[in-house]
Write a structure and sequence with these properties.
Strand content: 25-35%
Shape: globular
Main location: cytoplasm
Number of strands: 7
Pfam family, one: Urm1
Subcellular location: Cytoplasm
Helix content: 10-25%
Order of helices and strands: EEHEEEEE
Keywords: Cytoplasm, Isopeptide bond, tRNA processing, Ubl conjugation pathway
Protein name: Ubiquitin-related modifier 1
Largest sheet: 5 strands, mixed
Radius of gyration: 13 Å
Structural class: mainly beta
Distance between the termini: 39 Å
Length: 97
């Protein structure tokens, strides 16, 4: 499955400063959902400070997730099953003080 992934609002700093990744997810028995995508991202793309992006099996509070420009909360959050060519955007709304 080939899907673009993007980070904004400073989240890209956790991924070596790369704002956009075009990834091909490996085949697996179960369909890919956001939950399994986050595990894959943590293992394969996240370069530093995972606690600033992941909390438990989800993203930290303050990270907005959009799938094809729609809020993931409207799509089932972690259980949303990814489709080929879905665009997933992670935006950090957290700011230092």
């Amino acid at each position: 499955m080939r899907t673009p992934r993007s980070w904004r609002g400073g989240a890209e700093l956790l991924f070596d400063g790369v704002k956009k990744h075009q990834v091909t997810l490996p085949g697996q028995e179960e369909p890919w959902d956001i939950r399994s995508l986050l595990v894959w991202i943590k293992k394969n793309l996240l370069k530093e400070r995972p606690e600033l992006f992941i909390q438990g099996d989800s993203v930290r509070p303050g990270i907005l997730v959009l799938v094809n420009d729609a809020d993931w909360e409207l799509l089932g959050e972690l259980d949303y099953q990814l489709q080929d060519q879905d665009s997933v955007l992670f935006i950090s709304t957290l700011h230092g003080g």
